[in-house]
Structure formats: structure tokens, C-alpha cells
Amino acid sequence: xxxxxxxxxxxxxxxxxxxVEPARIDPALIEAAAEAARRVGYEEGLAExxxxxxxxxxxxxxxxxxxxAAARAAWAGEESAALxxxxxxxxxxxxxxxxxxxxxxxxPVVAEAVARLAVERLAVEAARLLAAAEGEAVLRIVAPADxxxxxxxxxxxxxxxxxxxxxxxxxxxxxxxxxxxxxxxxWAGRLLAPES
Length: 196
Fold this sequence. Notes:
The protein is an alpha+beta fold. Helices cover 66% and strands 11% of the residues. It has a domain at 115-192: hypothetical protein PF0899 fold, CATH 3.30.2320. Helix 2 packs across helix 3 (145-155) and helix 2 runs antiparallel to helix 4.
């Protein structure tokens, strides 16, 4: 097919419907109008393409943002559970160490307090035995050196009390067949033994 000028394709009809040859139109004018129409069509197509591209770009960006938000939420959920577990473990370890440290610091203090209380109770019971004894019965007290000073203070230099420094942590007071004793060795074993 050969190229024909646009003007040759244009025909007009008269009022009776007969074909009438159009007046001669300058082909340059027709080509200029066609070029202007192509330019307008190109610009409109370009604008429509840009609009579609912008809409698709926005849709893709929104989908990517939604996917990223979902991935972050999933990651945060997984990491927060793992982090919570690590923090709980660390706090439990800190608590364990603090309790061990406090127990280690308090054991000697508690052991000393228990020993003082035991000596005091032994002295009270020994004094009761001595008061209830008939005649010149002698109360014999065997105790470690650290307890003996306190017991001697309590009983003074009474001829009815014999104080003997002994080995071991316990003190024993005896008068005849009656015996009163501290059981500090047993208490110390419980107090000073580290918990397992």
C-alpha cells in the first residue's frame, strides 16, 4: 500500500448524499494538523502512563510497607519472647546470687546469735538445777572457751560451780543425774551448710 495524502481520503457529501470532491486543502496544513494530533496523543498517552506508573508505584510501596510492618511485628514478637526469656534467666541468676551472698553474710551472724541464745538458756537451766539441788551439790559446766567467759560471768566464782573448758561447739551442764546441753553442733551444721 502506498502512502496517500490525507486530503485524498477526505470526501464530503452534498445534501443529496452524493460525493463531492473537497476543495483543495494544502497538504502541509493537513500534515501539521496530524503532527499536532500526534503530539497531543503522545502527551496524553505519556500523562496517562505517568499516572498509571505513579499509581502502581504507590501500590507497590504500600504493599512493601505493609509487608515490612508485618515482618517487623513478627520479628519483634519472636525477639521479645527470646529477650524476655533471657531477662528472666538473668534476673533469676541475680536473685540466686544475691540470696547466696545474703545467706553467706548472715550465716555467721545468725550462728553467733543462736550460740548466745543457747548459752543464755543453758545458764538459766543450769541455775534452776543449782537452785533445786540439795546440799552442797556441784554444778559442772563443760564448754568451749568462747562460751566459758560468758558462763563464768553468769555464775561468778561460786564454789558450787565447776567450769571446765572443753572441745567442740556444745556446752553441757550436769548436776548429779540431770544434764542440760546446747545442741549447737547440730544447729551449726544446718546454718553453715550451703543450701543445695
